[in-house]
């Protein structure tokens, strides 16, 4: 069926920009071999598909063009045309655009069948490259689009993203987490196999006073000595508050760099034991922070420091004895750094954490369990290992226990080691009671 070009109506929602070079190439092709596929119009002669072919005919000076009515098409042709039209609409939402491209690709794959292979399974005749060419995008872009669309089918939460870029980032973040979860489970299995073969739960020598229970290991020794015995790339997160001895230094005039030296040595021996991208959190003395001492020792050890620190705000702190001369310090800073380029956080989070310590304080430098849990959740997945080389109260171990993470807690002081063991035991008993 032929129609005059003047009778065909082009709707506003069709593409507004068409490559002039492509129109010229198409016109040359039509001049040489004729129009292979007729354009599609509805019952009112409104163009449904084939605007480029229509413009090529106009450029050739032809008055008519071969058309097919929408009502004459097969169901497959109608679906394909509808999808191609929808994909070209600017107002299509990111999830709808992805779903449309995936459906279009699947329709062509199903239509064209498979080519037999030696394995007998066959491979599709219609390839990703064919869909990419059909839509005028690169094969790489099309391949990533189809992967993202399939991921959205399995995880509808991805569709909540406002843009395809943000959806892609979220998908990659979740893929990374799944990979880390699998790796952590494999490590647990390897440790279990070693234990059944007569080894210890971890590969370190049994020469230190040690408590081990359900993935929580506490060691009573100098942290540097024990860390050296650990396998490389074992640890997923550092969370600690080193003994800066600030109050002792101020009162008794001891060397103010004692805590700094110990922390610097710890960071140095820990570096190879951390996995690439591991997140590190270190509470610190405000006076050391503002003087730049801690930043220098972290950078010297080879770590990358984040621009933003975490702040534990302490509600209900009373004013100092001289409130008109000084600001009351009602917070503790925590520097965030990483080995190499840091992993993504597990969720968005604010820098200021306002929490109080619940129940009895068992250590002078104890942190609220809520703050520690937040950090552990942001930095790790289940079964990954968190290390606290100066464990004090043992609350990092309690948080790990509650969140199904592994933990290595170290303290050279017999009193604090015993305190940490007691707190972890209480947590284990509480979880057992809940079960």
From TrEMBL:
Gene Ontology CC terms, in alphabetical order: chromosome
GO molecular function, one term: DNA binding
Presence of the UniProt keyword ATP-binding in the record: no
Coiled-coil portions: 66-93
Pfam families membership: N6_N4_Mtase, ParB_N
Keywords: Coiled coil, Methyltransferase, S-adenosyl-L-methionine, Transferase
Gene Ontology BP terms: chromosome segregation; methylation
Keyword Transferase: yes
InterPro entries on file: Chromosome_partition/occlusion, DNA_methylase_N4/N6, N4/N6-MTase_EcoPI_Mod-like, ParB/Sulfiredoxin_sf, ParB_N, SAM-dependent_MTases_sf
ParB-like N-terminal domain mapped to chain residues: 1-87
Protein name per the record: Putative methyltransferase
